[in-house]
Amino acid sequence: MAAIVQSIGLSKQVLSGDQPLTILHEVSFTVNAGESLAILGASGSGKSTLLGLLAGLDVPSGGSVLLNSVDLFALDEDGRARLRGELAGFVFQSFQLLPSLNALENVMLPLELGGANDARERAAESLCQVGLSERAHHLPKHLSGGEQQRVALARAFVTRPKILFADEPTGNLDAATGAQIIELMLELNRAQGTTLILVTHDEALAKQCGRQLRLEAGRVVS
Fold first, then answer.
1. What is the distance between the alpha carbons of residues 72 and 77, in angstroms, rounded to a whole number?
2. Distances from the Cα of 97 to the Cαs of 101, 104, 148, 184, in angstroms?
C-alpha cells in the first residue's frame, strides 16, 4: 500500500500573551491510500489543528507533511490550494454551505472552480447518492441540519477526492441524524476508495474507522 498522507515531526506553537504555547509536539504517522483513520482526543488536545496542518490550511512551526508524496510546505499558498483542489474533499461540523446558493449550486461549486463543463450533471448525481434529489433547489436555510450535512457530503465527494478530511462531522447533529450521516459517509468512502481522516471525540464513531490515533495535550499517546 502506498502512503498518501505522511506527517513527519509536525509541531505547532503559538504565542499566548508573550509565552509560547505548544499545541502539537512532533506528531508523526503515515496513512496509506484507502485507509480510514480517526483522530481522537479531548477538547483542546490539538485534533483540529492537526487536521488543518495535514490539509495545508495552516502552516506548522516545525516538521512537514507529504500529500501523495508532495511536500506540502515546500509549496506557496497558491500551490497548496491547487494540491488541495486536486486531492482533497472536506466535511466540517458547521456545514460551510454558501447561504445564497441552493443545494445543487453548492455541490456544483468545487467542480466549477476546477473548470468542469459537466458540473450540473455530476452535482445532480452526487445529490442523488445522498438521497436529496428532491431538495436540490432549496437554499440551506430551508434544509434541516442533517440535510445540510448531506449536501456537504455530496459536495465533498463530487470531485472524487483521493483524501477526505472530516472535522467533527456530526458535532451539530442529534445522535440519530449523526449516525445516519456517518453511515452515509463511510458508505461513500468505501464506494470511491477514498482515504478518510476524521477528527472526532466520539469513541463509537472512531471504532468504525480502520485505525485510531489518540492525542493528549498535542502528543500522540496511542
1. 9
2. 8, 11, 8, 18
